[in-house]
Amino acid sequence: MRLHVRASFAALSFAALSACASAGETHEAAVLPATYDAALAEKLGADEYGMRSYVLAILKTGPQDSVITDTAERAALFAGHFASMGKLAGEGKLVLAGPLGGEDGRRGLFILNTADIDTAKAWVATDPTIEAGVFVVDYSKYYGSAALMQINGVHSTIQKNEIAD
Question: Which of 28, 74, 77, 147 has its CA 20 to 30 A from that of 84?
Fold first, then answer.
């Protein structure tokens, strides 16, 4: 029960800080916890709240998705899609990616290691599924935990098998 209460408090605190930050408000910094790691915060580009700016890209069903029906062509496009994601992740540009459930045409998301939407567009534009019109992309600025920058390194230590194309 105690852990649940702490987790709930942490989530509420995070939500309050996020709301203040997005509203442009500033508040006195709380006392630093004993576990604060200034060097890691600096390495990850964290601000005083442990947060940083990214670009969120939502991949949506594109106009050519229903037109491109050849199985081999789609397989090649999606192999290129996964290769593009791997390349961007390897370059430190793609922080997080994953599929969505398809509601309202939303098929996937990327969180990109830039605060600039034009830069994110340039990075994503060469993805074969986007070039072919299988997906279109909506971009938005995103303010989230700087700890996301460690996801790819951590993931590689827990991934037993690679996802097949």
Answer: 147
Beta strands in the chain (DSSP E): 51-61, 94-99, 106-112, 135-145
Query: How many angstroms separate the CA atoms of 53 and 8, rounded?
Result: 24
Select from 2.160.20.10, 3.30.70.1060, 3.40.50.300, 3.40.50.150 the CATH code of 36-158.
Answer: 3.30.70.1060
d(CA 86, CA 156): 12
Give pTM, 2 decimals: 0.77
Token digits of residue 114: 């830039």
Domain limits, the chain? 1-30, 36-158
Q: Taking CA 161 as the corner, what is the angle to CA 160 and CA 164, rounded to the nearest 5 degrees?
A: 160
Closest of 108, 111, 113 to residue 135, by C-alpha: 108
Q: Tell me phi and psi for residue 60, to 5 degrees.
A: -120, 160
47 phi and psi, to 5 degrees? -85, -170
